[in-house]
């Protein structure tokens, strides 16, 4: 019966993630519902650790602005991100997203993070590239050691407990059951057969604009 009691108390957390908006600029919404043991997580920090593939990134300057206004909190690894790099020159990005309690549910937490799609190489047929987001890992950090060792295992996390000022605390990894194993982001891409047309139009636009600028300079410029 002791084993059954432990299993009942160690129900898997349920995690869902959803992409809001359309196009290149999206909001990643993450929701976590802890198991029965999560009743003891009041006052603890809950976070989702996710690895973003090269096709998607977080703008560190935008994140810093949001954190300054207490709209979100996250740690980026690495903290320097090339926001101009295309997908084929970018690398993975590890994100630790701190979550806020959901007032409608005692064991529920949620957080939103702005993410952006990167430009991909032109494709042969499809006008969309697929970016696959794996399900995040659920982490909990409590400085008063009220967590059940049977349910949550220590995890190596190089980030402080959110809102804690009494020194480093131990993060724990929570066994979880994702609502979906993967989340697919569709990013618009160009078609290879359009490359010649794009080059010609770009060249004509460049020549036209240069001619207009030169004509304006000759007409209104003071060369005395």
Automatic annotation (TrEMBL):
Pathway: Glycolipid biosynthesis; glycosylphosphatidylinositol-anchor biosynthesis. It holds the Pfam family PIG-X. It is a single-pass membrane protein. InterPro entries: PIG-X/PBN1, PIGX. SMART domains: PIG-X. It comes from the Eukaryota. Keywords: Endoplasmic reticulum, Glycoprotein, GPI-anchor biosynthesis, Membrane, Transmembrane, Transmembrane helix. It is found in: Endoplasmic reticulum membrane. GO terms for biological process: GPI anchor biosynthetic process. The keyword Transmembrane applies. Its main location: endoplasmic reticulum. GO terms for cellular component: endoplasmic reticulum membrane. The chain crosses the membrane at residues 195-218. Belongs to the PIGX family. Stabilizing subunit of the glycosylphosphatidylinositol-mannosyltransferase I complex which catalyzes the transfer of the first mannose, via an alpha-1,4 bond from a dolichol-phosphate-mannose (Dol-P-Man) to the glucosaminyl acyl phosphatidylinositol (GlcN-(acyl)PI) intermediate to generate alpha-D-Man-(1->4)-alpha-D-GlcN-(1->6)-(1-radyl,2-acyl-sn-glycero-3-phospho)-2-acyl-inositol and participates in the sixth step of the glycosylphosphatidylinositol-anchor biosynthesis. Probably acts by stabilizing the mannosyltransferase PIGM. This is Phosphatidylinositol-glycan biosynthesis class X protein. The gene is Pigx.
């Amino acid at each position: 019966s002791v084993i059954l009691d432990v299993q009942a108390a160690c129900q898997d957390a349920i995690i869902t993630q959803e992409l809001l908006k359309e196009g290149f600029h999206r909001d990643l919404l993450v929701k976590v519902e802890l198991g029965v043991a999560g009743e003891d997580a009041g006052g603890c920090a809950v976070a989702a650790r996710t690895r973003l593939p090269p096709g998607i990134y977080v703008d560190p300057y935008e994140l810093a602005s949001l954190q300054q206004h207490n709209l979100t909190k996250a740690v980026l690894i690495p903290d320097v991100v090339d926001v101009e790099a295309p997908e084929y020159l970018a690398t993975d990005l590890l994100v630790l997203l701190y979550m806020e309690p959901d007032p409608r549910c005692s064991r529920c937490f949620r957080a939103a993070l702005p993410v952006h799609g990167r430009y991909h190489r032109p494709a042969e047929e499809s006008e969309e590239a697929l970016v696959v987001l794996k399900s995040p890992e659920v982490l909990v950090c409590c400085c008063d050691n009220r967590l059940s060792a049977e349910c949550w295992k220590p995890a190596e996390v190089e980030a402080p407990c959110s809102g804690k000022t009494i020194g480093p605390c131990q993060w724990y990894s929570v066994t979880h059951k994702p609502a979906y194993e993967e989340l697919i982001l569709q990013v618009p891409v160009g078609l290879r057969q359009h490359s010649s047309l794009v080059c010609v139009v770009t060249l004509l636009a460049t020549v036209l604009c240069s001619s207009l600028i030169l004509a304006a300079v000759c007409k209104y410029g003071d060369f005395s």
